[in-house]
Structure formats: structure tokens, C-alpha cells
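Comment thread on ticket #2218

A.B. wrote:
> Attaching the input chain for the structure job we discussed in standup.
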Amino acid sequence: MKKGSLLRIIISCLFTAGILLLMTACSQSSRDTVRIGYVNPSTGPLAGNGEGCDWVVEQMEAYLSEHPIKVNGEEKKCEIIVYDSESDANKCSELTQKLIEEDNVDLMIAIQTPNTVIPVAEVAERYGIPCIATQSPIDSLANSRDEFNWTYCSFYTLDDVYESQRALWTVAGCGVGSGAKVGLLFANDADGTAWHELFVKRLAEDGYETVDPGQYPSGTTDFTSLANEFKNENIDIIAGTNIPPDFMNSYNAIISAGVEVKGVTMGKCCLLQSDVEALGDLADGIMTQVWWAPTNPYSSALTGISSESLNEAYMADHDGRVMPQPAAYAYEALELAIQTFNTTKSLEKEDIRTALSSLDVDTIIGHVKYDQKMKGLSFARTVLCGGQWQREDGVLTLKIIDNSLHPEIPLTGEYLPGNATNSK
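C.D. wrote:
> Ran it. Output below, let me know if you need it in another format.
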């Protein structure tokens, strides 16, 4: 081949490559809509955690209609695409892939317990899509993979959970040095495994006697052996985190076996009014985490609304029902997404990631800044208090009875002795 011909081919290739790069840049800058992918457990065992998602999306859409996103000064429309995972991890993965491949989302939201956060974040990492993760203990997500390049999480750590539950055991008369026996109730899923590992370690360090029947397969219906072990060991505390059907079955078996304890501290299954209402009288006196409440002193820097006002708006649209804790985190996730787009230089994925990683903002659940790391996962630590389900005019109400980790959060009640194991 003649040198002249070769030179013409090289010049032609470079020209074509330049045109393609220019077209890509123009396509990114001229695109008038940003898309947020959101996988929510609207149905299935975790549906209580997904309650309020549609309402929160409507609130943000209303805000955006008057305050459009501006990417580098250019107004953009925003489309929030929500799919129901049916509380199934495999479905989470499938829907995240669909959102990325078919809906061409610019950013993913992974939310509502490790069961549904981990698979969404995993797919986002694989495709290189910026991902806002929330409402999963940091440890559970951090332990799910070796490296995180696109995911940023806001929630509490399991050390925070342990210390919060220990404070609740203390008010129930089972503090450090009391000689109390703690019975563990954990499934063998990702969430249960992370909790179990840390609780076993911390309980031993604090001198508690641990009664550990081993992790059970989620979906178990016969807890007779576990209940008998708790009875024989004469435990003082039941501690764990479980999906609602597993807790219902295990707690019924424990009570039937005649186990009586001074305190029950449960995560996940006892956070929400809809879940504890399904438990009926079994829910009385159960203690759990409180990550958000209408009385929390936080407001959104984006929309200007306070926790109290957001709850009032929710109650007005839901026949007086208090806004569930996860709905506040749904609001926070969308706040963070919009703030990210408002601060990114472009819609290139790397620029979106840079904007997300640099957030330093007040949200409805508190301040968010991804300035901590666990096993490669960048995260922002959020508030955690201890609460107890109490009857108020016959209605189960979650009262904040311990704020030792975050004294700025106001208490809304005092500890009341008693629970379903000793109410006979």
C-alpha cells in the first residue's frame, strides 16, 4: 500500500473517531431528561418497608415541576422509574438490569433492607452506574462484595445497632454486668449473618451469656427446637432481626414454649406500624430501632420541608396514619439524587459519580456526607435511637425511649416493663 493511501486511511479514521466523540458529547449535553431507577418492595414480605414510596415520588415530582433540575445551568426534565421487586432478590437484579439496559437510567436507588439493597447495588456496580444506597446497615452491604466504585450508602453501622439495643436491655434491667442471658434469633440471609457475627462478638466482649441456637433458614415454619432451647436456658433477652413471617412463627413458638423474658429487641420485622399491627397483642412492649421520627429536628435543604411538616402532609393523605420510617429514607434518597444532578458537570456517568461522592447536604433524615469507609464502601452515618411499641388509647405507637447515641433527638416516651412473653 502506498504511503499516501495509508495516510488518507489514518486521517479518515481519526476524523470518524472525532465525529463519534463529538456526537456522543452532543448527545449527552442535549439530552433533555434525566432518569432515576428505583426498585421498591411494594409487595411481598418486605412490603411494609416499601410503604409510602409512590407518595414520596409524587411529592418529588411536584417539587420538580416548579424547581427543575439544572445540569451545568441547563434545565432538565426528570423521570423517576419505579419497579416492584416483590421483595425478591433475584427480581431486584432483573429489574435493575432492565432499568439500565432498556430504560437507560442515569442513576440507581438501592433501598429497603439488605435483601433488596445488595442485589441492586451489585448490578449497578457491574454496569458502572452511580448508585445511591440507603436503609441497609453499612456492614451488610460492605460485606457483600470486595470493591465498590459506584455505590454510596447512608445508614447506621451494626455497632450502632448493638449499642442501641444494649441501651434498651439496660433500661429493662439487663445491662452490662447483670449476668443476663441473651437469646439470638437470626436467619441465615445476608442481613442476619452480618448481625449474628457482630452480636456474638460484642456480647462476649460485654460479658453477656449468649444462647445461640444457630441461624435458621428464612421461611422456616417450625421453631420448636429453638423455643425449647430458649426455655431450657432461661434466657432474659431475645435479640435479632427477621422478616415479619419468620418473626411471627418464631415468636409464637417461643411464647407457646413458656419462655418469659425481660426484653425483646427486634430489627426489620418490628419497625413499622403495618407489621406490628399484624402481630396484634404480640407486639406489645417490643423494642426496636428508630432511625427517623416526625419529632426529629431535621429539614430538607432541597425542598425546605421539616420532618414534622412532611409527616403532617403524609397523614393528611393517609387518613391520619403516621409516615413510616422507610418513607423518610425514600424521600432522602430522591433528595440526594436531585442534589447530585444539580451539581454534576454533565450527564457522563463519571461526572455524576463525582457529584454524588461530593455531596455534603442536610436531608430529611439528617446530614449526609460520604466521609467514612468500610471495606471499600463509602458511607454516611445516620442517626439511631431506641424505641418501644406501647399502647396509646388502644393504638400501638412507637415511642423513643433512648437517645444515648444521639442526644439531639427528643425522647417521646419512657420504658414500660412487660411484653407478650410475660403478660399472662
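A.B. wrote:
> Thanks. Noting for the ticket: The CA atoms of residues 237 and 263 lie 5 Å apart.
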